Amino acid sequence: MSEAPLIHVVDDDESLRRGLLRLLRAAGFEACGYGSTGEFLLHPLPDRPGCVLLDLLMPGPSGLELQAALRQRGVALPVVFLTGHGDVASSVRAMQAGAVDFLTKPVQRHALLEALRRALDRDARERAARAEADELRGRLASLTTREREVFDGIVSGKLNKQIADELEMAERTVKLHRARVMEKLSAGSPAELGRLAERLRLLSEP
Amino acid sequence: MRRVDAWVLAGLVAATDLPAVAAVDVRNVLVVYSNGRLLPANVEGDRGLHQVVRAPADHPVQLFYEFLDAPRFGGEAHDRVLAAYLQEKYASRPPSVVVAVRQEALGFLLRHRPGLFPGVPVVHAGVDRSAFAAMGPVPADVVGAPADYDFSPTLDLALRWHPRARRLVIVTGASKPDRAYEEQLRSEALPFEKRATVEFLDGRPTPEVLRRLGELGDDAVVFTPGMFRDGEGRDLTPYDSVRAMAAASGAPVYGAFSTQIGTGIVGGYMPSFEAIGREAGRTVNELVAGGEPASVRRPEVVPQALNVDWRQLRRWGVDPSALPHDAVVHFRPPTLLEAHRNEAIGATALLALQAGLIAWLLVEHRRRRLAEAAEQTRRLELARASRLAAAGELTGSIAHEINQPLGAILSNADAADLILESGGDRRQELRGILADIRRDDLRASEVIRRLRTALAKREVERRPFELNAAVSEIDSTLGAEARRRQSMLTVRPAPAPVPVVGDRIEIQQVLVNLILNALDAVAGLPEERRTVVVSVEQHSDRADVTVRDRGRGIAPEHLPRLFEAFFTTKRGGMGLGLSIARTLVEVHGGRVWAENGQDEGAVFHVELPTSREAADSSPEHP
Known about the structure:
The structure holds 2 protein chains of 2 kinds. Chain A is α/β, with parallel strands linked by helices. Helix content of chain A is 58%, strand content 12%.
């Protein structure tokens, strides 16, 4: 769970890559280098917190293309761009695609480390959110069909009698299901159940 | 009938020259010579007169001649009869001007003019200066230039040219003019008595004269004006007498008259009778034209000129270098140059022409070299401008190339910093970092050096280089540029080294230009078409570099004009890149052309002659 983050450095320039890895490791990070976009994509990604430090211009697919490929694959690692010569157009594209920062070589240590920390923070936050959502989804998945139907009724603000009428069951049975839903979803009150439902709704949206 | 005839006659008269029918005011000029008609001096004088006398437009001039034969005839009775004769003779043709040649004729006219030709102006010619002075003042309408008959310059000359001469022998005749010469000579010879013994042979019989002259040796010089009559009363012409004397004499003979040159005399200061005749002719012209005798311009005196016989100079051993430049030299055999004058002129002209041609060619050659140098400079500057423009386009890629090693250096330095902060013995790691920093530093400076080499003002080099390596060098810069443009640049070198001779930077510039054009051509196309392939191939003695793109190709109507200066299809393009590229390639003895690819895109070819010299395939190092 609290595994150390891993920074992926993708740069075709071997010397620069080595320098960056040295710096990151000296700064206390775990880092791993890749010579090209392809190499990175072919490498099995461990499920670890981290971020990608990505060169913009490389032979073959560029950093921007890698960024797009990662998104397509559902890899949520935040990306920090590093470029020898950044033009406005590519930096805009990179930021629109969700990059954390767009740095220009040679980069100041503090700027680099700060950007990477922000990326890792974002990754940690997203990871935590994703973990919570997963847990909630897991809890939601433990509900039976009937319980789920009752839950939907409760979060849309219906009374027990209304739910009983709609589901053609006794009001008493609705109460029973309700108690089981509260227990399964670890909700202490109907209000808490509402907040839970709201969060689930947010998470289920893309 | 008669009427008709009269009409015809009138018509004819009218048709012919009418003024001819009217009385024409003919100007008669009477020339009175003192001597005989065939005296050479008179013949020459007459020639000079004829050369000059010109009739005014409306006054035909008619010349008449009379000869007094002075040495042979004379005396008061003779003069009287002659005057009466002339008066009768010229009554119907009165002269407008009378010319008196020499003092005898002038004397005769001065005496008889009032009766003979009253009021008719007299032009005198060839009158001895001293004799003229002895006549006293002459009337204002008697004009002319006396002639210089001084003998002393000739006497002086003879003694100078023959420094061993101690005797000056002077021969004169027995007639009245002969005696006049003798008298003149006796006074003129006086100053020379200090330099030589002056001996006169005056009025002697010809045989004696000839014998005496024959006895002379090289201690003597002879002077004679010639004899009109010898001591035996024999009439002679001065010419014949001088010829006889010169033939007999054992010493050089000097004379007084240019007409006698050729008789065997060496020469002397002599009046030119032709010049005297011309001078008189000019005066006659002025008077005939209506000039006033008093206002007629003429020289004080007609001067003498040194006349010499070249053959006699050689015979008597006179140094030709002693001749004054204005001497009139007779009978000098023509020099080689003179003998072959036309050939010499031809040869000289030919030489001059040849020299001129050579000079012209040299000038032309120099002009062309200067023009070539100027052209070369212009080409260099254009090429540099084009490289600067390309560099401008490549700024991003160049920055990338430099920032790459700079970034590595900074990261390594920062890493080292952190490692030192962390403590512990990590020297091995630090050493590796320093090695990397050093290498990246060199890498960055190499980029800058290359850039500076490419952009610097420079002389064109001609040295062998390897084409594959040159193309690979471009790839490192342009590869980044292609990536920046999300296009793909592929370089396919030839399997074996391709040696060429020339300027590597210029050839690289050509290729950079073509590659940038190709990248422009594929910009904005679908990804799979954004590719540019550069291949190097060698075919026997030439190398072919092709730059192939998958763009839209070249419009057929643009193909022929592609390499022209200022032709461009790009917005904002100068249209210089390809024209400079062509110039650069052609300077290398190669050619560059473009065509459309078989399926799509354009193919640019750069063909260069390969060299047999082994090329240095490694790039230059600083």
